[in-house]
Specification:
The protein has a seven-stranded parallel beta sheet with strand order 3-2-1-4-5-6-7, with helices on both faces. Helix 4 packs parallel to helix 5. The protein is an alpha/beta fold and about 250 residues long. It has a single domain, classed as NAD(P)-binding Rossmann-like Domain (Rossmann fold).
Length: about 250
């Protein structure tokens, strides 16, 4: 059990990558707070995991909601060791001038400002010494290959992921004295609920093949791929790893 006795909070865990991460962490011994804007989806995932998980609803773009997620971890499991900032959104793939101000604000609030809110709520708890003497923890931000090798049509979304990457590296430097490691996992496009928005065209086999042609290993990322990368960054085996941007991309950024 690679995460035995650890407590993890995963946002956007009601489906897609987040669900995969939450399930993987629980299988490896962690107790998991399954957080999602869709409370019913969070409860479905938590129920499937069992007693090692609790659900909480909330919008990561709102500070009080994020504080409630962290409070749920402390109330249910007595603390916090791992945070995965997975919740994210996008605007539809289109020319940059076609994105409305409301869409722009929402993408930045969910993808970037959420990191601010989570830092405010979670870092004091991560800094607190545990009864067994442990201190610190692991924060994993879900970035994107869009912030490393951006595609046209997703200008503002790409910008949010570039911000996530820089914030990750700055957090890693500032929090290292507290033994809080901060890393980013950067997936290539996956077959999640946002796939059609990322492509900007109907989700057909023909359109998928165009995007698959840009990924050397010839497939989209899966929740399992992302969960395995997060697991390594959460466990003690990576205790000397902080400030990295880890592409999980089938070679797209090579």
């Amino acid at each position: 059990m690679r995460l035995r006795d650890r407590v993890a909070l995963v946002t956007g865990a009601g489906g897609g990558f987040g669900e995969g991460i939450a399930r993987c962490f629980a299988e490896e011994g962690a107790r998991v707070v399954v957080a999602d804007r869709d409370t019913a989806a969070a409860e479905r995932v938590s129920g499937a995991i069992g007693t090692a998980a609790v659900a909480v609803g909330g919008d990561v773009a709102r500070g009080p909601d994020v504080a409630a997620m962290v409070a749920r971890a402390e109330a249910a499991f007595g603390g916090l060791d791992i945070v995965v900032n997975n919740a994210g959104t996008t605007h539809r793939n289109q020319p940059m001038l076609g994105v409305s101000e409301a869409e722009f604000d929402r993408v930045f609030d969910v993808n970037v400002k959420s990191l601010y809110w989570m830092a405010q709520a979670a870092i004091p708890l991560l800094r607190r010494p545990r009864p067994d003497g442990r201190r610190g923890g692991s924060i994993i931000n879900i970035g994107s290959t869009a912030g490393i090798r951006p595609r046209p049509g997703l200008v503002w979304y790409n910008g949010t992921k570039g911000a996530v990457h820089v914030i990750t590296q700055c957090m890693a430097s500032e929090l290292a004295p507290d033994n809080i490691r901060v890393n980013a996992v950067c997936p290539v496009m996956g077959a999640t609920g946002l796939l059609e928005q990322f492509m900007g065209v109907p989700d057909t086999p023909e359109n998928r093949s165009r995007f698959l042609g840009t990924i050397p290993l010839g497939r989209f990322s899966t929740p399992g791929d992302i969960a395995n990368a997060c697991l390594w960054l959460a466990e003690d085996a990576s205790s000397f790893i902080t400030g990295i941007l880890l592409p999980v991309d089938g070679g797209r950024c090579a």
